[in-house]
Structures are given as C-alpha cells and as structure tokens.
Amino acid sequence: MIPGMRGWLVVPLAIGFLSGGCDKTHPPLVCSGSLATYCAIASNPCAMTWTEAQSDTWFCQFTTAGSPLEADCGPYHAITLTFVDSSRTYYYDVASGKLVAVITADANRVAVTCDAGPSSGFTPPVCSGAGSQTLPVCVDGGTDAATD
Prior knowledge:
The protein is of the alpha+beta class. The chain has a domain at 30-118. It is built from three helices and six strands. The chain has helices spanning 10-19, 35-40, 50-55; strands spanning 69-73, 76-82, 86-93, 99-106, 111-116, 133-134. A six-stranded antiparallel β-sheet has the order 5-4-3-2-1-6. The protein is globular. It starts with 9 loop residues before the first helix and ends in a 14-residue tail after the last strand.
C-alpha cells in the first residue's frame, strides 16, 4: 500500500457495506452503547438534535478536504467527519430531528460499527448521489489576518 493512501479506503469500505447487494436487507449493526453514554464522554460531545448540529462548531475542528459533510440520506440527515483511516457519521431522524446513531467506518479494521444508537441496533441507509455539502457553520474560516 502506498503510504498516506489508507484513507482512500474508507469511502469504498463504507459504500461497499451500504450498497453491496442493494437488493438485500442487511442486518442491523449492533450498537456498542446508548447515545446518552457515548455523548457524555468528553471526547465525544454530540449535538443531540439536527437544529443544534447545524450551528455546532465542534464539528469544524475536523475540517479537511471533504469534511465535515452534511447530506440527506433516506429518512436521515447525516453529518460525516473524515479522518486518515476512518470516517464517523452522525445520523439524525428527519421527522423528529433527534440524533439516532453514530457509525464509524474503519479502513484499518475493514469494518463498519455502530458506536452508539438504539439497543435494537441500527441499519445505515443506502446513500447515493452527490447531495453532500460542507457543513455551513464550518465554511467561514473566520477573520482575515491583518496586513501591513
């Protein structure tokens, strides 16, 4: 593998899981814990509603080319953060606006896992199309540096 190219595996990994056999029903991912427990950890702050997520600048610290992205995906609004070898997606129910699940796609482990969500599990929706856009709250880089 070419050094620095492992991150390119994350998107194919997630797409392969989510779309592999579009005509097949995938079993729900078993979630590691509840959203309340996951989001209470200091390193995992969560915007608990879609409205809060739209203005939560916590996501902006993960700004990279193509991250954070927001998209509508099936019955969910989704915000995806991409890292070197993984991505994390926060799914919000369109109808209620509530955070439903946090999913990680990890290229090193070749796995998609549910970090937090319903005790009955969560099945990520099949997403298609180029409907993603940069999270608006993260677009403005702030004020320009003063020039002499």
